[in-house]
Amino acid sequence: MSTPIDKKFEEITISSQPIFEGRVISVHVDTVQLPNGAMSTREIVRHPGAVAVLALLDDRMLVVEQYRKPLERSQIEIPAGKLEPGEDPAEAAKRELEEETGYRCANLKHLSSFYTSPGFSDEILHLYVAEHLVEGNIHLDEDEFLECEAITLEQAQQYIREQRISDAKTVAAVYAWQLYKLTGRF
């Protein structure tokens, strides 16, 4: 009899100790029993989840440039942000798009949901594509400082080579856009 794939390497949590409770994340150290019966510890970052939007405007992609403290430099990224408790990811994507770029979308399509770093975090990111944009007003959070611009696919590819774009969600969005331009499908 075979073991179900989701239980094959299961680690059973014996205890979980909260280490840090922040505004965005919490950190726990879990004691786990491994499949062979041995004990180990796992440091886990808990995150409420996030959304990101590949927003297309007249054959250009909307991006924002902002400073990322963990990297000690500015990054160019697609609009994104964390989910509020109980918030629908599609509604969060629309909210983040308007807050960061000033644009609203008539059409929003879910492309993928993926875990950003499953080795230590439970953060899931929901990636959407937005087309048929309508200009509105930017509504930045009081601790947000960024600039929005619309770039071509060629510029996005150049920014990846220069590492001005180097976060996974934006790189994935650029490749999804490139595939769309080649095939007509996301």
Automatic annotation (TrEMBL):
The residue ranges of the Nudix hydrolase domain are 45-180
Instruction: Give one GO molecular function term.
Output: pyrophosphatase activity
Species in which this protein is naturally found: Paenibacillus xerothermodurans
Q: Which domain of life is it from?
A: Bacteria
Q: Which PROSITE patterns does the entry link to?
A: NUDIX, NUDIX_BOX
Instruction: Identify this protein by name.
Output: NUDIX hydrolase
Give one Pfam family: NUDIX
Cross-referenced InterPro entries: Nudix_hydrolase, NUDIX_hydrolase-like_dom_sf, NUDIX_hydrolase_CS, NUDIX_hydrolase_dom
